[in-house]
Amino acid sequence: MNDIEIVLALLLAVVLLAMLARRLRIPYPILLVLGGLALALIPGVPNVELRPDLVFLLFLPPLLYSSAWTTSWRDFHFNLRPIGLLAIGLVLVTTTLVALAARAAIPGLPWAAAFTLGAIVSPTDAVAATAIAQRLGVPRRLVTVVEGESLVNDATGLVAYRFAVAAVVTGAFSLPAALVQFVLVSAGGVLIGLATGWLATWLNRRIEDTSVAIALSFLMPFAAYLPAEALGASGVLAAVTAGLYAGRRSVASLSPSTRIQAFAVWEMLVFLLNGLIFILIGLQLRAVVGLLTGFSAVALLWYGALVSAVVIAARIIWTFAAIYLPRLASASLRARDPSPPWHAVAVLSWMGMRGVVSLAAGLSLPLTVASGRPFPGRDLIVFLTFAVLLATLVAQGLSLPALIRVLGVGEDDSSAREEQVARLAAARAGLGRLDEIAAEGWAPRVAVKRLRDRYEHMTHRFDGDGNIEEAERDTRAAGVSRRLRREVIGAERAAVIRLRDEGTINDEVLRRIERELDLQDVWLEA
After folding, report:
1. What count of other Cβ atoms lies within 10 Å of the Cβ of residue 268?
2. Do 150 and 130 contact (CB within 8 A), yes or no?
3. Counting beta carbons within 10 angstroms of the beta carbon of residue 441, is it exposed (0 to 12), middle (13 to 18) or buried (19 or more)?
4. DSSP at 233
5. Are 35 and 139 in contact (CB under 8 A)?
């Protein structure tokens, strides 16, 4: 099979496995990894290598940018303290603990190589965390913290990785220089990301063609990532910052039609990129195992289980300590942000999935050091990275829904309450504008009255001093109305298609009317 046929076959596998995951109610990233593992074991299936440069250049920027675009800046900013404790503190602690465990357990592994392994497996993966967390019905704050952590901690882990690899290759390391470099790399990435986000917003306000605007949105992640990497800054933070800024400004910079179409296009792109990444992870099994020589199966299982256990235990201990200890020490923090229930913290501590960034970092390790000797423990490091990935993504990911059910952690009603407030404010604003229009006298009174009746009903429906139960009863009653409207829309669509099939109207007219009906259908689903 040539490369194009392999890509098409992988896309087909992604679609089929995603359909199966939906039927089995399993997060699709997990089933895709398992599917890739199964494919790797089939004789005759060609070897498919996961090229690290391809991951860091083509996959990572758009996925980070997309995740950041849809992240709520308000929620991200409010949770900046726990996000920082996990994205920076936990990464450094995990790196150190893994290095200590690996150095003690693996004979002959140098300290620098042990720290390299720790840096590779320490950050959670933005792709895995976002793809799984959003599908499990956990409280919104947990999703915000997990997504925010995974968006930022890649930068911490990759910077630590750079210095650890440099220490192995050159044999030299300076902690003060590493700390200064970390600050410069992070600050540079944020500044480049802000500049790119501003540029994207400025251009979007001046572009009227929807296709051009969507094409531009595909380029912006790379416009942030590539210059940052070229200047020695964090491309990860640049892409994340650009996505946060541009997403925050998109309400004013993009037209409604552009937003509708861009959302659909990006949703498909993210699904395909996620799917390819996770199935490629599974397909690396044959290549990773093929690298290993000189180790018994028992030793490999022991090393893999040890490193995975350290990674998981470090997150559990650190998460509980980072959540509760600051509140025990600060009364003002307790008053401002009360301690969450331990059930939610337990779920958060179990959501440390690793993914493609860790594996790509492991595979991109140099083959030799400056003296020309092989990179110490390279093949074992790659295998242990793969073991941690499977333990966290597959084992933890599969057990996470059961843990959520057992602990009784479910979605909160904060989003519903905020939506109720927003809809009430919008309806009142509409009534106010109708009063102005009636005074101006340019609109027919019948039309104004009809709209006024509709908006007065909306204000009555959503007004109730935050009584979410009343709003839910109204929503259930409105379900019958939505069903009736869908039936009418279906009849309209069938009639227009029949006219097209009979030759009474052309396809252009059909598409124009069908788009209006589709938008109404989308509105009914909101």
Report:
1. 10
2. yes
3. exposed
4. S
5. no
User: What pTM was estimated for this model as a whole?
Assistant: 0.83
- Same domain for 385 and 508, yes or no, is no
Number of helices followed by number of strands (H, E) in the chain: 25, 0
| Two structure tokens written together for 101 | 């465990």
Query: Do residues 173 and 300 both lie within one domain?
Result: yes
The amino acid that residue 516 corresponds to is E
Cβ neighbourhood burial of 367 (10 Å; 0-12, 13-18, 19+): exposed
| Count of other CB atoms within 10 angstroms of residue 46 | 11
Q: What burial letters (b/e) apply to 402-430, b meaning 16+ CB within 10 Å?
A: ebbeeeebeeeeeeeeeebeeebeebbeb
How far is residue 145's CA from residue 313's CA, in Å, rounded to a whole number? 19
Integer Cα distance of 276 and 296 in angstroms? 32
Q: Tell whether 8 and 86 lie within a shared domain.
A: yes
Which of 86-90, 117-121, 146-150, 170-174 is predicted with the least confidence, judged by mean pLDDT? 170-174
Which stretches of 350-444 are DSSP H helices?
356-363, 378-389, 397-407, 414-440
Length of the chain: 526
Selection from 317, 312, 292 nearest residue 384 by Cα: 292
Task: State the amino acid at position 147 in one-letter form.
Answer: E
Q: E strands within 34-98?
A: none
Q: What is the extent of the structural domain holding 446?
A: 413-466
- Predicted pLDDT at 466: 47
User: Residue 513 and residue 200: Cα distance in Å, rounded?
Assistant: 32
- Are the CB atoms for 384 and 304 separated by under 8 Å? yes
User: Rounded CA gap, 176 and 162, in Å?
Assistant: 15
Beta bridge partners of residue 374, listed in sequence order:
368
Q: What is the DSSP string of 285-317?
A: HHHHHHH--S--HHHHHHHHHHHHHHHHHHHHH
Of 277-286, 297-306, 355-364, 465-474, the poorest mean pLDDT is in 465-474
| Gap between the Cα atoms of 322 and 83, Å rounded | 10
Answer whether residue 432 shows pLDDT above 70. Answer: yes
400, 26 Cβ separation under 8 angstroms: no
Q: CATH number for the domain including 379?
A: 1.20.1530.20
